[in-house]
Amino acid sequence: MFNLKLQKIFPFIILIGFLLLFWYELFYPASKQKALALVGEKVPNFSLATLTPPYKNFTQKDLQGKVSLVNIWATWCHACNLEHPILLNISREYHVPIYAITYRDKTDAVQRWLNEKGNPYVLVANDATGTVAVDFGIYGTPETFVISPAGKIIYRHIGAIDQSTWENILYPLIKKYQ
Amino acid sequence: MKKIFLILFCIINLITVSFATQVEYEQYHFANREQANLFYKIIRDTRCVVCQGQNIADSNAPLANDLRNKIYELINANNNEEEINLFLVKRYGDYILLQPPMQGNTLILWFFPLLIVAFGMWLLVKFLISR
Fold first, then answer.
1. What is the pLDDT of residues A88-109, one digit of tens each?
2. Do B66 and A133 touch (CB under 8 A)?
3. Which member of A21, A134, A139 has the closest CB to residue B70?
């Protein structure tokens, strides 16, 4: 009697096991890998002309000597618009230097955006061809990298930063290096 | 007659779709045929990370275009397939390779289908014996 019941239930147990495994393989490892890629590595070498004063070439060397954020964003990105007030707050209240790389954007659109919404960035440079963005391994905009004083990527956040991400993940990490 | 129209309609639609999804590669010029072949092989084997189950050869997504340009640049700088794959994996993880390498964390991907077949065979044999 017990064996018969077990025989009936067994295929369903196997099926549920398969479904759980598929769910895990589909969602969990990919997202974990995404956030881990490049963490612990040096910031890739790059050189981009800035769009706002001081006019110069923004390179990986500008990121050395203090903990900073590199924010990759675009004016055509809706999530970047939602993230912008948080970045302004980080810059004004927490005094963490934020560097911007705009992805495939137009110079005048970036300048207009910053004039209208405020500029939380130390330097803003445009990656018009997407080359630097690929060197950073971005999936889309916005993405934010936490850079150590030694110029290493210590964390990457895919998507918009919200208050909770800032307070619970990014700021505690930054404090360790300040 | 209706059938002929229906077949023609389907063919025209297929042609339109295939033209619409065709990605142009005329901007890429290679020093030799080996480099060109390597470029096409790598872009066929590289996943478009912002698409659903598509490689970067068939994708019109801006990021796929940027990745194609980067691979072109790396080939022109005389990097081989292994070096280019290493560059991509370092930035996007094994996920970017449509054929993941056989290693600890991908063993399940390679052997899981075999396990399913073995399990199916076992069930089939059990069923046949019971009859």
1. 999 999 999 999 999 999 999 9
2. yes
3. A134
